[in-house]
Amino acid sequence: MSAEATRRIRPVTDRDSAAWWERVRAGELTVQRCDSCGTRRFPARAYCHRCRTAGWSWEAVEPAGRIESWIVSHQPFLPGVREPYVVVMVRPAGAPECVMYGNWRGAEPPHTGQRAEAVFVRVDDELTLIDWRPAD
Ligand SMILES: [Zn+2]
Predict the structure, then answer these.
(1) Per the structure, how many domains does the chain have?
(2) How far is the CA of 39 from the centre of ligand 1 (A)?
(3) Does the model's pTM come out above 0.85?
(4) Does the first or last residue of the chain, that is N or C, have fewer Cβ atoms within 10 Å of its Cβ?
(5) Residue 52's CB: how many other CB atoms inside 10 A?
(6) How far is the CA of 52 from the centre of ligand 1 (A)?
(7) What pLDDT tens digit does each residue of the chain (136 aa) get?
C-alpha cells in the first residue's frame, strides 16, 4: 500500500481497539486474554465470547505466525493503491486460535502454513500498521 493511500485511509479505532493500536505503535503484538477463563481473542472486544465476563488483560505474543489464507486483490477499491496486492490471514504463533489480517510483503505469493513475521510499518506519529513477510 502506498504511503499516499495510507494517509487518506486510516483504521478506525473504537473503545475496544484503541489500546491495541497504541501497543502496535510501540512495536508490540498483543491479543486479549480473558481473566476468568483464559481464552485469547482478537480483535479486541469488551466481553469474552466464551464465558461472557468483562475482565481481561493484554497478552504480548511473538510477532510471528503462519499463513492461514490470503487473497490477491485486483479491484481498485482504494485510491492510490496499486493492484494487484496480497492480503494475508495469519494465525499468530503465540495465539493460533486468533487470526489477524495484513498486507503481504513477500516477493512470491504466500502458501498455506508458511511461516511469517510481522513488520511494523510506521506511517506517522499516530499510526503504525502491521504487514507480514516470509519468515524463512
Ligand atoms: Zn472467558
Answers:
(1) 1
(2) 5
(3) yes
(4) C
(5) 10
(6) 6
(7) 555 555 557 888 999 999 999 999 999 999 999 999 999 999 999 999 999 999 999 999 999 999 999 999 998 777 777 889 999 999 999 999 999 999 999 999 999 999 999 999 999 999 999 999 999 7
